[in-house]
Specification:
heterodimer, A: 400 residues, alpha/beta, Rossmann fold, 2 domains, 6-stranded mixed beta sheet, 4-stranded parallel beta sheet, globular, B: 307 residues, mainly alpha, 2% strand, Leu-bd (chain A)
Chain lengths: 400, 307
Amino acid sequence: MKAMKKTLLAVAMTVAATTGVQAAGISDDVVKIGVLVDMGGVYADICGQGCVTAVEMAVEDFGGTVLGKPIEIVSADDQNKPDVGSAKVRQWIESEDVDVVTGLVASSVTGAATKVLTDAKKIALISTSASNAFTTKACSPYNVHWTYNVAALANGTVKPMVAAGKKKWFFITADYAFGHALEGIATKVIEESGGEVVGAVRAPFGTTDFSSYVLQAQASGADVVGLANAGGDFVNSLKTAAEFGLTETTDVAGLLVFTNNALALDPAIAAGMKATSGFYWDMDDQTREWSARFKARHGVIPSMGQAGQYSMTMHYLNAIKAAGTDESDAVMKKMKETKPDDFFARNATLRNDGRMVHDMLLVSIKDAASRASSDDIYNIEAVIPGDVAFNPMLPECDFK
Amino acid sequence: MTCQTFASLGDVMATIFGLNLFALSGQLLVGLINGSFYALLSLGLAIIFGLLKIINFAQGAMYMLGAFFAWMALNYMGINYWWALILVPIAIGLLAILMERFLVRPIANEDHLYSLLLTFGIALVLQGAFTHIYGSSGLPYQIPAELKGGTKLPFMYLPNYRAWIIVSSLVVCFSTWWVIEKTKLGAYLRAGTENPQLMQGFGINVPLITTLTFGFGVALAGFAGVLAAPVYSVSPDMGSNILIVVFAIVVIGGMGSIGGAILTGLMMGVVEGLTKFFYPEASTTVIFLFMVIVLLVKPAGLFGKEA
């Protein structure tokens, strides 16, 4: 009889837990953070294991528990494949009680993952994706986009160059969604600022040899050749541009440069090139302090995605604490009410569309002689205020 | 001879498309430079397949290893580019000899599929290990000081290093072809693979020849890797990016045809280069399209013997 009572009690508790009877507090007695990243592919360095480390640091710094319940981290490799990523997210939500998914690198994977998350009313904390779709045409009340986006890159890098008289542009563009988005938004910025685009080539993802495209860029008579690509494509195209003497006669602008890419380039080739970044480790004491801790654990200076990853995770955990629950709507409300403010997020607000607007940096790559250490790669040329850098909020994405 | 043919082809194309001949000449030259890379890599594959009937999927990984070894030699041991160009292919060749002796040979008499899967597995392990250790962003490697700068041709600026790529790879390709097709050593090699029992009866050490051939074929990939290090990003996926294209080239040229692999490599470089000019979006597909057509019209490949 006693045993039966016990069993009944257990059943009742299980039902209560799975149906989410508790309106407040922590569901399943644990806050579970899923980190979805590319672990071994082209984007492994810019987020990857480093993003997992950043989440771990945030959880440790937060104290390991929130509202008296433990915080757990799970991670998975999305292989830059949308189907792999969305299947993992579905599994996490349906059978592993994951409360929030973060990391999120390749825009295609993020697109697939955020759809699943929004359907399940779970929050997506996007650290390293470039597309601005997640807060515009694919916006959702559960999306948070933190570090940067294509609009900030175009406004940050392109606008000042056109204003300085570099009117004619030629693009070498990565032939997939991200490259097209970047070229499109940069073209808009150029035309609005009184410049013109004299030509563009679309190079397939993973092109090894860019010499043909560089010759075409050379023949176009452009003032600036914009590299609307990323990662290995960016490094290869810039190397080739330098080899064929393009960098001597024409300005070359890298539209998406991570510190990892800058480290992979010979300073003789890359010196002087301007780029827009959401973060740089050597900006002030605050950034240096956190970056030193990160490097001690990860071995490499943090990319903007990894720094944003920490900042965003911290903001999320603080919001749970303030809201007294990990229920998605309440947490989102709290996150938007509170202004993010840490070593990463400067003059920042999280808008109702989920876009985190903060100061961006216009940087230039240092030449070999002015580098004090191998990590000393950028000069900060200017701080771009968030409202200048990012695209304005669309009325249909104003989720209050 | 081939250059002249391509130049006159350029003339014709220029008239057809009404384009600036200068622009086109630049594209043709760039295509030939890339083609010489393809020639080096597909030559290694063709030797290994033609003489040993092994489909070596690790060839791309060995190319990657060549570039990484050059980087390591410079950064850990201070060995410069020129020494690396000699020492790295030897190191890779030795590695390949060990691989042949202990991994490939035990399954030599099985179906081709076994060696294909084995070498594919080796490639994945190598690529994974290097991604783990060095990350996926790539490592910087400078063009040697002697080859910096370039020459201004009437139609384009030709970097000295690119000129060096085309000259050195053509020399290596054609001397390899000459050794295999025109010398006594090459004759032993070809005979040994055609009829190993008979050759052994004549007192020729066939297993040794097999091992050395495998080592040499792979060393060619290592050589191409060192050549590539200063101009392409030294990264773990550089081999897998190029390998599939190189396989397509070997198929187009005719599986196992040594001369065919070299000529097709150069030709496909030019075809790809022209595609990059006229319709860049198709540049990664055009070689496969070519392969499909060749397989339909001449299944043994352009230079292959009918089975």
